[in-house]
Specification:
- This protein is 72% helix and 0% strand.
- With 508 residues, it is mainly α.
- Helix 1 crosses helix 6, helix 4 runs antiparallel to helix 8 and helix 11 runs antiparallel to helix 17.
- The protein is globular.
- It holds the Pfam family MFS_1.
- It is found in: Cell membrane.
- Keywords: Antibiotic resistance, Cell membrane, Membrane, Transmembrane, Transmembrane helix, Transport.
Amino acid sequence: MPEAAPPRSTAPPASRVPPRAGARPGLVLAAVSVCQLMVTLDASIVNVALPAMGDSLGFADGSLPWVVNAYALALGGLLLLGGRTADLVGHRRALLCGLVLFGLTSVFGGFAQTPAQLVAARAGQGVAAAVLAPIGLTLIMVTFAEGAARARAVGIWSMVTAGGSALGVLLGGVLTDLLDWRWVFFVNAPIVLVGLLLAVRSVPAVRPPLAGRPDVLGAVLGTGALTVLVYGLMETDRHPWGSVRTLGTLATTVLLGLSFLCWEARYARSPIVRLGVLRARTAWLSSLLVTLLGAGMLAGFYFSSLFLQNVLGYGPLAAGAAFLPFCAGTAAGSMIAGRLVARFGGRATLTGALLLSALGMLWFGGLGLDSDYLTGFAGPSIVTSVGVGVCMVANTAMGTSGVDPREAGLVSGLLNAGRQCGGGIGLAVLSTVAVAATRRASTDGSGSAGSGSDGFGSGGFGSGGFDSAGDAARAALAAGYDQAFVVTAGLLGVAALVALLFAPPARQ
């Protein structure tokens, strides 16, 4: 029988909740920025080291992408649980445990002697990241009062989030070329130590925001739905969308998702996701926008990296360095986002930033064999990244406004899960689009885009093997990448339309 609705909270509105007593805001922001940087770095730092890992440990054919997939699968599947865990066990405890686990699994990965050990280490990193990713935004919400202070903190956090992947490619190339592939894991040890020192000094030990027993069945259903979805999408490069296996995983995702919603809405005593939080327009809208943005940006970053290496012939280190303008643009967009919202309002700022990102992706869609770096890559990188930086700050600020501090972990988990799952969905869909376009161009031009992965494999950064391909083959690959960029621009355009129709217009 359904339970009665819980009594209305007597806590003051989140906008009037003072900063947490005993916290040191500057050090808290430094701690969560270090954690977020490590989480985003490790999503991409291994990519350029994949060939060296495969040669050193003897990976079987087709199994090397699981070095990437194991991390993404654990992170995407456990984000909601990780966000709610912080509310139940305490923010300080969750942060410290996540850092320790990340450090131990990183060292284990650095010393791995077999493929199974390395994949297990990556899965362990993903579990730790599922705790660390939402706790960063959660601590910002409970430490900084809503307003200018929180906006600045969210801006820095968003800048780290957006720039971490590009920096990961660069750092991975430097460590692999100058030292050894194992250092892409060992480098996390000093980062973890810095994070632990900052967390111990800045985050106070207080009573967990929520009491009661964890929602075990809800956690199993929710985590199961996300895990099956992420796994099914990652396997679409080997099993087409219309295959029995892919359709079966999608059907299983729908079944688990509906069961999760039913349990959370009617029977759970302490739901892992209180569905009532999505009644607020800012909550569901920011979750939807970050899903679309994640789909567009992860796919755009992936295909632009492949374009540099497989079409223009850049090496891993040069390809990583090519993304420095993207990092600079993201930083600039993050810094001006607060002033734009204050002057023009959330609706106009979000819509304009998403349209700017879409224009940048359309610019990317014109890349070809004769493209030069300055006008063909750096230009669209700056345009796209400025829009991304503004959008991430404005959207995160909108999604976290008016949130009860006791549900900060839940909202943070929703935003992070949306970005992660959106990226996985976008990458799977756009990979299919790009491969089809490449095959059409190859057939029309009587060329060959290569063998095996068609230049779109999961471990594709620096491992596609197309640097010496003929002009016809490289032109076919470029046509596929360009088609992916154009569709990505369409996704960002849809997000801009959603923001125009539903985002609150008020200035902050």
